Amino acid sequence: MKSVRPVTILVADDDPDDRQLTKEAFDEARLANDLRFVEDGVELLDYLNQRGKFSNPEDAPRPSIILLDLNMPRKDGRQALAELKADPRFKSIRVIIMTTSKAEEDILRTYDLSAASYITKPVTFDALVDVVRTIGKYWLEIVELPDVQRQTP
To answer: I need a surface site. Which of 33, 57, 114, 130 has the fewest CB within 10 A?
Structure first.
């Protein structure tokens, strides 16, 4: 059996309803991981770099997984993904795109930028719970993620 390490999941989504539904889906799927939220790409990079309101390391533990929406204000998910994957400190963080966009160009571009997965947001809560369960099964039980405790931000 795989040893269980705490895994922080960072969700970057500008829609407060989507953030709340994601939290409820994680609860419903019984995934008790450390779930953190940011509202756009600027906050995402501030979180990863422990800047501004995320300057206290306890308030911004390094995530193993980022669930990233593409369509956000200030800095969208495409820009944020390009920046974080260009930084050697963050290359090992798995980024799962979870967005409403079904555009082929978004799918191709995000995979070119080393996104780990591309998921179109489900339209019903039950479907979202199923997606979260599947993410949990695959990324938290099957896949071996790097030990983020050994990596420095």
So the answer is: 57
What is the rounded distance in angstroms from the CA atom of residue 150 to the CA atom of residue 104? 36
| Domains of the chain in sequence order | 8-143 (3.40.50.2300)
137: DSSP letter: I
- Residues 6+ positions from 54 with CB-CB distance below 8 Å: 43, 46, 47, 60
Q: Which residue has the tokens 């809560």?
A: 125
Question: Could you tell me where the DSSP H helices lie in 59-139?
Answer: 77-86, 104-112, 125-135
Write the burial class of residue 130 (CB in 10 Å: 0-12 exposed, 13-18 middle, 19+ buried): middle
* Distance in angstroms (rounded) separating the CA atoms of residues 124 and 127: 5
- pTM, full prediction: 0.86
Distance from C-alpha of 78 to C-alpha of 69, rounded to nearest angstrom: 9
Instruction: Quote the CA–CA distance of 49 and 25 in Å, as a whole number.
Output: 28
The tens digit of pLDDT for each residue in 10-26 reads 999 999 988 888 898 88
**Pairing mode, strands 65-68 and 34-38:** unpaired
